[in-house]
Amino acid sequence: MNSETSSSAPIAAVVDLTRPPLETLTYSVTETARVLGVSLPTVYRLIARRLLKPLPGLRHKRVSKRQVLAYINSGQLLPA
Questions:
Q1: What is the gyration radius of the CA atoms in the chain, in angstroms?
Q2: What is the C-alpha to C-alpha distance for residues 37 and 20, in angstroms, rounded to an integer?
Q3: pLDDT tens readout for residues 4-34
Q4: Spatial separation of the C-alpha atoms in residues 52 and 29, rounded to whole Å
Q5: Which of 5, 13, 53, 54 is most buried per CB count within 10 Å?
Q6: 55: Cα within 13 Å, side-chain hemisphere
Q7: How far apart are CA 30 and CA 13, in angstroms?
Q8: Residue 28: phi, psi to the nearest 5?
Q9: Burial of 12 by CB count in 10 Å (0-12 exposed, 13-18 middle, 19+ buried)?
């Protein structure tokens, strides 16, 4: 066995499994649709109507968690 390819450090030492995962602060359009329980085109319509504003300057649209929660709490959700 080549000593360069084998690792002597256990996986747990590389990845700390005792720490909770980081909290998500932004959602992709797909994640936003899943959280709101709507389709992708609906999320894009909400963005076009400026009911949700994606973060500026990013290559892919990301919506802040704060905006998604504010939209949910505003009561403007589409009827089921």
A1: 20
A2: 26
A3: 555 565 555 566 667 777 888 999 999 999 9
A4: 11
A5: 54
A6: 15
A7: 33
A8: -75, 175
A9: exposed
10-14, 40-44, 72-76 — which is least confidently predicted?
10-14
Residue 71: its H or E element: helix 65-74
Where do the structural domains in the chain lie, given as residue ranges? 24-74
- Take residue 24 and report the two structure tokens written for it: 């998500």
Tokens in use for 49?
């109507």
Q: What is the pLDDT of residue 31?
A: 95
Cα atoms found within 13 Å of the Cα of residue 67, Cβ hemisphere only = 17
Whether 59 shows a pLDDT value over 90: the answer reads no
